[in-house]
Amino acid sequence: MEGTILIYGATGYTGKLIAKAAVECGVRPILAGRNIEKVKAVAEPLGLIGRAFNLGASAILDTALRDVSVVLCVAGPFSATARPMADACIRNRVHYLDITGEIDVFEALALRDAEAKRQGVMLLPGVGFDVVPSDCLAAHMKRRLPDASDLKLYISLGDDMSRGTAKTMIEAIAAGTRIRRGGRLVSHDRAEAGSCDFGEGERATFQVSWGDVATAFHSTGIPDIEVYFEATSAAKALVRMPRLVKSFLGLGFMQSFLKAGVDRMPEGPSEAARRAGRAILVGVARNDRGGSVRSRLRTPEGYTLTVATALDAARRVAGGEVKPGFQTPSLAFGADYILSFSGVTREDL
């Protein structure tokens, strides 16, 4: 018998998609957010229970989680929501999942591994497109080349994004490009250019700060890790931005201005765009003896995959598939977990 799942952030673009998909497959989650009227607008048409609460009051959080087994947090930016929700989950022995792709959130939750284990709680961030497919690919590369010392992940996806994702990217503007070197996170002012064959010839790529810089290290132990995006217009604009401009855009008043602009964006890609979209990921691992392996993963569009993986992960955990402590998707469910989803294929090149 499955325990009860609470989806926090259910009034956002991704939250609404997950709530609808849950009902369609017979799951009855509790929906939650900050505003009760907005929560009801999503919950009532689906015949679900809705709750509203902020994350700032411990007693209120404890009450909200009193009958919950698993929290799936889909309210970003997770720099603001992950810590208070994880605090409450650990305190109340409730398993914590989210769909973050934020490096600092992964690292902060990893530091709470021992604390979570003492409470028998699993902390499993990144159960969406960030980072299920790429984390499983990283684990597969490690399996193919056990002594790998360098891992590069290349990702090709469209420009469409939700408001929450856009706000997360805005927060990251001033942080520089982050990579893993010798097991440590380091930041570069300028992104490296590269190229990758995603299946139709070489395409230009740019180095980006992506969640796998954190999670792939925890999953594989590979000390040097970099992530690259195909050089779409959005990626080019972000990585080519001069450091001075990035610093200016990182100031508080500019962050507020940019986020206000995001609030005028469409919520996210249309259903037609999600149905037509796709993503391609390529992993390249090398060892110190000159050996290398390459694999390619094809998946549905990012938000479509996020709905599937986030809901599946929450159901597995609610059903008792639990490893206490900090986990990544591949540590929790295995390197081949991503292959259990419709529309996903992997080939070793």
Gyration radius (Cα, Å) is 19 Å
The major β-sheet equals: 7 strands, parallel
Strand content: 15-25%
Low-confidence segments: none
> Helicity range of the residues?
40-55%
Structural class: alpha/beta
Task: Please state the average pLDDT score.
Answer: 90
What is the terminal separation in angstroms? 41 Å
Order of neighbouring strands in the sheet with most strands: 3-2-1-4-5-6-15
- Beta strands, count: 16
User: DSSP helix count?
Assistant: 15
Topology, element by element:
Elements lengths: L4 E4 L4 H12 L5 E4 L2 H11 L3 E3 L5 H7 L5 E4 L4 H14 L3 E4 L4 H8 L2 H7 L2 E3 L7 H13 L5 E7 L6 H10 L4 E5 L2 E5 L4 E5 L4 E7 L3 H9 L3 E7 L2 H7 L3 H7 L2 H11 L8 H6 L1 E9 L5 E9 L1 H17 L6 E2 L2 H5 L11 E4 L1
Parallel strand pairs: 1-2, 1-4, 2-3, 4-5, 5-6, 6-15, 7-12
Antiparallel strand pairs: 7-13, 8-9, 10-11, 11-12, 13-14, 14-16
